[in-house]
Amino acid sequence: MIKIKELTKKFGDHLVLDKVEFSIQDREFLVILGSSGAGKSTLLRCLNGLVQPTSGQITLNGMLYNKKNIREIRRKVGFIFQQYQVIGNLSVLQNVLLGRLGTKSFWNIFFTKEERVRAEEAIEMVGLVDKIYTRVDQLSGGQKQRVGIARAVLQNPQVILADEPVASLDPVTSEEILSLLKRINEENGTTIVCNLHQLDYAKKYGERIVGLRYGRIQYDGAASDLGVSDVERIYGNHLSMQPNTGKTVKPSSTIQVLTT
Ligand SMILES: Nc1ncnc2c1ncn2[C@@H]1O[C@H](COP(=O)(O)OP(=O)(O)OP(=O)(O)O)[C@@H](O)[C@H]1O
Hints:
alpha/beta; Rossmann fold; six-stranded mixed sheet; four-stranded antiparallel sheet; globular; binds adenosine-5'-triphosphate
């Protein structure tokens, strides 16, 4: 379980997270929803130790995030990036094996036979067996994201943080990627925390939604309970998000979306 207490982050004078407080249960599929600049990425980066909070506290299974524990925490928390963060001139297999780097010491970066077998299994799970020796720069965006997911799976983390994993993908590929994350959540029992812009995906794939606006929590509850007034609090009461397009629309369209 991750516990977040009074998490505050300032960049200079800019308050990006303002005393954010909530817990993430084991095996949960949690969506962090909010418009651009709401603080979603900053929150996820704090949960991975990539960003140092200004104040507040995070614990993973009671273990406090601090310099001493950060390597162990990073082993338990995988990260999937919006822009994939794969190495173009390496093969799919080599990229996925990089998920084991966190367990290696500086003088021993060799991978075992067992790690290779597990990498092959992860590649099979994401549906890229036929591309296993293909250079990653020859893959489509959706395939690159699958490589990123397989790399995170090989790490065998307790939690996967996905920072807008479908922001650069078309709707069909987006659904495939989110379904894959859902499968990993259900079959492997991995907790998923996924940042999304798109309201309809949040409601379809999230069990629970935490809605952020200006770094403050506006909604924390079941995805199925998210209503029009909650959406307006998250996005502002004059504008709301339209599904998939990322365009802003008047609230009447939002009401239609929520009632279909
Ligand atoms: N390293 C940084 N230095 C200064 N300001 C930053 C830094 N990282 C983020 N910010 C600012 O913090 C605010 C929140 O950014 P963040 O990326 O967390 O929002 P977001 O909700 O993820 O937005 P998006 O959906 O556009 O990615 C933004 O105004 C951004 O400019």
